Amino acid sequence: MTDSVSSGSDKNATLPLTDSVREALAITKRGVDELLIESEFAQKLARAEQTGKPLRVKLGLDPTAPDLHLGHTVVLNKLRQLQNLGHQVIFLIGDFTSMIGDPSGRNVTRPPLTREQVETNAMTYFRQASLVLDPERTEIRYNSEWSDPLGARGMIQLASRYTVARMMERDDFTKRFKSGTPISIHEFLYPLMQGYDSVALHSDLELGGTDQKFNLLVGRELQKDYGQEPQCILTMPLLEGLDGVDKMSKSKNNYIGITEPANTMFGKLMSISDVMMWRYYELLSFRSMNNIIQLKAAVQEGMNPRDAKVALAKEIVTRFHSADAAEDALADFVNRSKGGIPDDVPEVTLAGAPLGIGVLLKQAGLCASTSEANRMIDQGGVRIDSAVISDKGLKVEAGTFVLQVGKRKFARVTLTA
Question: Residue numbers of motif 'KMSKS' region (predicted)?
Fold first, then answer.
């Protein structure tokens, strides 16, 4: 069975959409925020199938921080799906653009990085991204390859291809201009250079977060101006963190780092709500949508949602650690839920016995302050050797014992006089 649509890039050609092309389109659209322009992308897929030439799929990352969390992997998961469909993924390190500094989603300029910072972060980025991507099918490029040779003349010629009025359509520029917050001229170069990356790479599809939509569209327009077929753009939603409200972020402490210990990762995944679990399934799981729909139906028919959450946690932990680590993490989680003490408890040696419980919890690194320690005691969240502590004035004598705060924070403390 086939149907067809008109290609936006070639109005004289209409390629049939086979069942396999429509399936690939459905996989591509899973969990996305926007796919622009869908009819054009369908034609690109049809042409790729007909010619056997894979599409060039680009993701640009400025290595501004070395560590990735599950929120970052939403886009990486989509790249992996496209790899599995046979297309060429280009993992573009923005070593040139990161030294400009992109203010996307901010009201201030992001500070530029040194070359050494860029190279260190880039290596860490790709090593961690390879936990999701197939490194054998990933082309790594650095945009300094074509950006550095442009020189002053080339940069001026590139700048002539875009107007200030169009640049001011970018939401954060508009807000900053209206509020009187300074906008430096060099900031206009960032979307231009990101767009020029698409020209240099002959990109067919570029991915990014919803906050990158303007920059992705600049690439599309520049390709037209350079006589190329314009890329389609695909934006992915921002994954909510463990609180189910704000986007996943280290600064909000609602994140799951992809290099965190297996037990920590498993426990955090089990802490998400039953409702948020399906959002995580859609954006993070490699299961088919049909499989997820069947699992959701089983829960609605009486299956314990905890079992579905365990399956998700095991899948994610297996991806970033191993199947054995996932099984061990499950056993550890069950043990903790029964009031048991995990195996991987950090050991701390402190002096000053007898020591007030609030000070002890702070010095052991289990609470940020004594006031937080007191709140946790009031909530019944503090235990010594599994016994709940209710006395905020308790003085703890010398000895070795296990301190617990909440469900996941433990320390084996040796307290001396």
Answer: 247-251
Q: 297 vs 27, 249, 284, 292, 365, CA distance in Å?
A: 21, 31, 19, 9, 43
> Which residues does residue 257 pair with via DSSP β-bridges, in sequence order?
69
User: Residue 221 and residue 213: Cα distance in Å, rounded?
Assistant: 13
Instruction: Pick the closest to residue 147 from 87, 98, 89, 215 (CA basis).
Output: 98
For residue 316 the two structure tokens come to 């994610």
The two tokens of residue 391 are 């006395």
Per the annotation, binding residues for ATP are: 250
Domains in the chain, CATH or no CATH each: 3-236 (3.40.50.620), 262-337 (no CATH), 347-416 (3.10.290.10)
Angle at CA of residue 416, ends 413 and 417, nearest 5°? 145
Helix ranges, 19-111 (H) = 19-29, 38-51, 73-84
> In 107-251, where do the E strands start and end?
138-142, 205-209, 232-236
Count Cβ atoms below 10 Å from residue 305 Cβ, excluding itself.
Answer: 17
Structure tokens, 266? 């498993």
Q: What type of residue sits at position 310?
A: V
> 10 Å Cβ neighbour count for 337?
12
Short-list 372, 347, 345, 370, CA closest to 357? 370
Tokens at residue 143, please? 């945009």
pLDDT tens, position by position, 283-326: 999 898 899 999 999 999 999 999 999 999 999 999 999 999 99
Name every residue whose Cβ is closer than 8 Å to that of residue 101 and which is 6 or more positions away in sequence.
109, 110, 111, 112, 187, 190
Name the pTM for this structure: 0.70
CA distance 389 to 405: 10
Q: Is the pLDDT of residue 205 over 50?
A: yes
Cα–Cα distances in angstroms (integers) from residue 239 to residues 101, 262, 270, 276, 277, in the given order: 24, 20, 16, 10, 12
Annotated binding site: 250
Alpha helices in 226-322 (DSSP H): 262-270, 274-284, 289-300, 305-320
